[in-house]
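Can you give me the bound-state structure? Components:
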Amino acid sequence: MRQHTFGQRKEALLFILPLALFLGVFVLTPVAGTIIGGMFRDTTFLKKEFIFLDNYRTLFADAAFRQSFRFTLLFVAVSVPLELALGTVFALLVNQPPVRFRTALRVSVLIPWAIPAAISGRIWELIYNYNFGLANYLLSALGIRSEPVNWLGNDMSAFFSLVAADAWKTTPFMAIILLAGLQAIPTELYQQAEIDGAGFLKRFIRVTLPILKPVMVVALVFRTIDAIRIFDIVYVITHGGPGGSTSSLSLYAYKYFLAGDFGYGSAVSFILFLTALGLSLIYINLGAFRKEFRKELP
Amino acid sequence: MLAANESGVMKNIMKNIINILLSIVFSFTFFFFSGCSKVENKTGERIVNFAVGGTPDESAFWEELVRNFEQKSGIKVTIQRQPTDTDLRRQGLVIPLKSGQADPDVFLMDVAWLGQFAASGWLKPLDIHTGKGKNPDLSVFFEKIITQADTYDEQLVALPVYVDGGLLYYRKDLLDKFGYKKPPETWAKMAEYSHEIQNELRKTNPDFFGFVWQGAQYEGLICNFLEFAASNNGGFFTDKGILSLNTKQNIEALDFMRGLIQEQKISPPNTYTEMKEEEVRNYFQSGNALFERNWPYAWKLHQSADSAVKGRVGIAPLPHFPGGTSASTLGGWHIGISKYSDAKSDSWKFVKFIVSRETQKKLALELGWSSGRKDIYKDPDILSALPHYAALAVAFDNAVARPALPYYTQLSEVIQRYANMAISGKVSAAEALAKAEDELRAIAGRYRVK
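Here's the bound-state model for the whole set.
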């Protein structure tokens, strides 16, 4: 191995410096600020005071917090796998060479992703509307049901209404990332598999999936972190109702920030951060991400 | 009915989508161009910065008013334009105030957050400027509004610009047709009329409902619940300021609300999921309801050219339970001056101009806003242009305020959640209020520590 000279080391540090600075200013400082802030009673109307873990004690005793936590985890558990499955199907479809208008198809798949979440929330709010929503209109036009359905009316249907809205919006993201992965697979592999007599399913399981796995893990990590923060569509469509059953952790934190309790809001945000971190670590280990990644290095 | 409205539905959806897109474009434009200039006025003070939001016609009104004031006084005022949404307006004020910034100097506050703003020490006391013989003399305003909303810790911290109170809107033509001369005075009568007329009208209009009100999980539900509760001699606090949510009167009131949707079925099933002010107003305005609970702003819109109920609406105080009296939750916007303002005396001149009789009259005539000044309701010009103002004055005499506590938002969140749970039919009113009271006590305990 070659010895690095002092000058070389200095040069290396110089290259790392911008990234270190960037991470320090935009990632570490806010996270540290949130951790420290969460240990204070910091409202607009009481004296600021160090209370160590009191905020967390209150948090775990609060039924609304536990409900929001449960909802958030459940939402991640249902929406992310659903989006992964749909995204894979879309990616495979769009990747088929014989499909005509391939470019047009790819662009149209992307449209929901390009719409800001708050707006897609409004669109879905109108779709679920009891009186003039598209969903009830279709049900009655197709003769399935004449009585309108109150889509957001009970815990279960409100939950799945939100999942559907989220899946519509973020499946394209999955599809695009997976498509990039698919395109990296050499066609010879498929031809060879075909010669060996592998059917579509077998080709998918033996050729596509293994090569796609690292890409899938990346997509899953991105989507999971995003889904944990779920705020916009909940805020717009249900505002946490009915009876607080669809309140997400971010919505819960937001309500406290709005009320001017910054200490408590910080504590909730830190829990949110820990949850995202925990799930990401699980993914990376479960997906043997590091191993896969190393394999690809020369 | 749904199929018959096919093109109307699509048009409605398209219209909504276009509106949303436009508002996004506009709000971005404002972000880019709303810098605050730091030039001095002739008086030696900095320019007055006035934060105000609202619908486009409201914003246009404020701009004209500010130009008017500038010409008269020679004091320059810049408008810091805020969004329409109440939560966003609050957020836009909490951030500069918490960090002690000099701008905005003057701003409008929703009555629901006045308590927090005052307790945080962000509002300049106005006592030295007002009182007997001074301008304005406080006796020109509704007493209950000044004492319940604008006074905190025995100090005057704001003045009313726009006061709101819940009202009962009713279909005059339908009541006439079924031989009822007067709107109902009790909730039982309201339900009785609703059943009869709803049964009859359902034959031709399956969407017709007796009574529409705000039941979605948001602040408006609190306002509705407080009215039902207070009209049954209940409420959230006793006279001595002690929390009393889980009481027989409140349980009865909440149970009645639940029954309107779940058993009597005279309020639509989406009351607890979608019904906010505008949804309720549109439902009534398209001719699909007999009674409506809403704020005064709905009147002008019900009378607009494209309204299906134009000229067929009456307003009255909200009904009450036996042994109770009609109650109207106090809402509305109040004006205050920041303690951190660098233009306090010019700001006060501006506030005085806003609450003056002349400006308040203009607000009533041009925007249909109801004033906190009593003299407006006796003004002959107003009464001839806005005949419903006589009924409004009665509602403001029956005003009940939401608790003016600095942690009111947290309390409200709990009550919203449990009241919504009860009217959705998931739990009984008694169970909801018992659980809510436990959570309220925990919150109060946490924030009362000094």
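A couple of observations. Chain B has two domains: 36-164+331-400, 167-329+403-448. The radius of gyration of chain B is 22 Å.
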